[in-house]
Amino acid sequence: MFQNVDSGVGGRGMGRRGGTLLKGLTAERDRAVSARSDLLSDGMQLVLVAATYYLAARFSLRLALIQNNVTPLWPPTGIALVAFLVLRRRIWPAVALAAFLVNLPISPNPLAAAATAAGNTLAPFVAAELLRNAGFRREMDRVRDAISIVVAALISTLISASIGAGTLVLSGSISTRDFQTAWAVWWTGDAMGILVVAPFLLSLLLFRYRSKASWGRRLEAIALFGLLTIVSLAGVSTEIRPLFLVIPVVGWAAWRFHLRGSAPAALLAAGIATWAADRGWGPFAHGSLLTRMGTLQAFNATVAFTSFFLAALVSERARGREALEQAASDLEGRVERRTSELSAANRRLTREITERKEAERRLRQQERQLAEAQQMARVGSWEWLIPENHVTWSDEMYRIHGYQPQQFPLTFEKAVERMVPEDLYRIRQNVAAALRKRREHVLPPNEYRIVRTDGEERALVGRARLIVDSAGEPVRLVGTVQDVTEDKRAQREHRIAETLQRSLLPEELPDIPGVALAARYVPATTGMEVGGDWYDVVSLPNGQGAVAIGDVAEHGLRAAATMGQLRMALRAYALEEGSPLQVVRRVRELVQRLVPSEMATLLYLVFDPDAGSITFSNAGHLPPLIVPVDGPASYVEEGLAPPLGAAPHPEYDIEATAAIEPGSTLLLFTDGLVERRGDSLHDGLARLKDEVKVTQPDLEAMCDHLLAALLENDVSDDVALLALRPIRFAGRPLHLRVPAEPTVLVALRHTLRRWLREVDASPQEIYEILVSCGEACANAIQHPHGVRTGFLEIDAELTHGEVDIRVRDSGTWRESRPPDGGHGLTLMRGLMDTVEVDRQSDGTAVRMRRRLRAEVTG
Asked: Burial, 332: exposed, middle or buried (Cβ in 10 Å; 0-12, 13-18, 19+)?
């Protein structure tokens, strides 16, 4: 019920096990006390102590021997002492108040009651301070604790006895001659309160926090206290006076139960003796009151000291035994731990040895792997110990220079003797500059050449790092050398092939009247070799357009050269042959004769704007995709034959025809657009069909969208893409811009005929307008001078039934005319309603109008 406070005590000689157990019990007790204390406020503690003090005092006054206020056993002093020990100094108001209330009714005046209460408060306070300074333990398990409480009891109660007896004399309650007797009784009562009551209260705490005793121990305690009661009563009530027998019984209690037994036994024996002294029984039947009090004090002090001394002695012995046992246990534990540590150290040593062997094995394996990797990558490592001028090469360094591994020892001069002179001079300059810096740093990579003993020149790239000591002196130069001869050769071939490929592809697509064209070429971003993908567009003399796309099976410079041969041959054959089948056959024959080991695909088609159809022949290439204005896209899989170079007989070649309406789109592409690693070609073709559903109507935007949607970041193969779309006129104004060359006249007539047909001009009107426009275009091509190359622009528009045609060139007409010329304008004026010629410095424009006889409105 008390708050957990520091007892301010300590001790030696207690074993680790006993001390640990006692500390654990004390901590458990203090936690319980703290938990209970949390339920009681400081005010409630004061009230509780005051009430206990008051009730004990009222009960003790029944044994009063002098003036109803001097008793040979005063328990309140012991209660106050325990309160001061447990609750510290803050409890003094409760003790003082209770003492005052007790003394007020039995004192002649309040001043006397206050003086007596002061003595009653001061005595236990001084006893508590003496015990605290002496390092007293509330468990009283040491001899010094037993001696301390006896000494504190005998000294501190001198204060209360002197103040109390003096107050009685000064207040007139007793005479001066009775002072000694009153003082003795008072001192005896207060001392007995400390000697027997305080230890009893302290022992109650031990009962609360110890484990439950066995039934045998309980029966022994009951028999012990019964015997003590009988011996005590017999000692104070018989003539034989066996009061000395109390000492062995109390000693038995102390030996068997320590403080838990000695404190109650001492309290019981002292209580019986005090009760007998009050009634004058036994040893206290004779003599004066002073004599009886002296006998009682001697008996009680002897019983208390003996019981506490024996209890402390037995406790110390038990602690010593526990300490010895604990020391033995600790020694055994240390031996076990040491044995375990030695075993663990042995296992660690064994494991470290095993790990070291494994690390050595891995190191040898890594060295072997490094040597193999260096050999595969053509990378050698080296080290130059500068002060010793000693050079160390790896095996691959020897191989790179054309020697057998570790064939001879090296110096710096020996290491650089195979370098090309101009490169050697540069290397020496770089090394000298690095050594002058006198600090650790990485040298920039150096590319140099060596000439091996067999006369072969090799290109190498060296990387090095300079190591210096603490003083800044160079001590080592380490680095690697990589043979990049093959890489340099491959890069050179790659640049040549890429340049050749770029030069062979058309720089720009020709302007074919009535046809919109767009093309894209994306080279591969992975690998060093370029592919053989290509495309071409040729404007045929008959006004039709020829489109081709192909792919050479191999890569590199040879593939680019083969692609150039195929493109040039196809251009020549396209101008000579009218049938796609004949063109493909002749290209096949060329491949079989010139490059029989090569294989290539080729898709060649001819677009007829007038008929709105394509005629094509496919030599192993992916089928073209037609995207109509309305409706699903579809692949044109007819006309398929084996690739070029695959079949020796031309009878496998096939020609097919397909219709393509104005506004529809024809896509030609190579396999790099649709092939993906891990996916089938069918899946790629399906993805292309899905993407054209959401493409833009503009051809350029369509090509950009398809490349962005179908290509990944890393393009593993070249991609060629060509889009063709016939233009739908539908009565809209026509604008053509073509080179000012005679070869374009046929295409112009075809386009203008389509436009006139769509505006419902009659055949006669179409013929006459075409003749007039042909004359104007021929004049624009023939007569202008002042420019090497120019363009011809033709605009045709139908406005309110009248055809308005404008022909513009970019030169100045010659004044002179050829002998057989000069009838063009006359013919145009005869066939058209109006003809206007506007000659300017930057060109000449001819405007012709002709009203259609048919009912046409624009």
From this structure: exposed
On whether the CB atoms of residues 610 and 754 are closer than 8 A, the answer is: yes
pTM for the model: 0.46
DSSP 91: G
Q: Which residues pair with 806 in a beta bridge?
A: 795, 847
Q: Is the pLDDT higher at 27 or at 566? A: 566
Strand locations in 491-568 (E): 515-522, 532-539, 545-552
**289-377 and 246-279 helices, crossing angle to 10°:** 140
d(CA 844, CA 782): 12
Residue of higher predicted confidence among 701 and 598: 701
Tokens 């009685």 belong to residue: 168
Pairing of strands 474-483, 515-522: unpaired
Taking residue 78's Cβ as centre, other Cβ atoms within 10 Å add up to 28
Torsion of CA 29, 31, 35, 37, to 10 degrees: 70
CA distance 134 to 128: 10
pLDDT of residue 858: 45
State the Cα–Cα distance between residues 711 and 714, nearest whole angstrom.
Answer: 8
Neighbours of 54 (CB within 10 A): 19
Cα–Cα separations (whole angstroms), residue 529 to 369, 555, 566: 29, 6, 19
What tokens were used for 409?
């020892």
Is 29's pLDDT higher than 60?
no
Q: 178-236: per-residue pLDDT in tens?
A: 788 778 778 877 887 887 777 777 777 665 555 565 676 667 666 665 655 666 555 55
Q: Please state the φ and ψ torsions of residue 134, each to the nearest 5 degrees.
A: -85, 0
Cα atoms in the 13 Å half-sphere on the side-chain side of 176: 0
Please tell me the predicted confidence (pLDDT) of residue 857.
Answer: 44
For residue 177, give every residue at least 6 positions away whose Cβ sits within 8 Å of its Cβ, in sequence order, or none. Answer: none
**pLDDT tens digit sequence for 63-113:** 665 555 567 678 888 888 888 888 888 888 888 888 888 888 888 888 888
Specify the DSSP element, H or E, that contains 573: helix 557-576
Torsion angles phi and psi, residue 87, rounded to 5: -100, 0
For the chain, percent helix, then strand, then coil, each to nearest 5? 55, 20, 25
Chain position carrying tokens 């325990």: 82
- Closest C-alpha to 314, from 139, 473, 487: 139
- C-alpha closest to that of 506 among 523, 525, 520, 522: 520
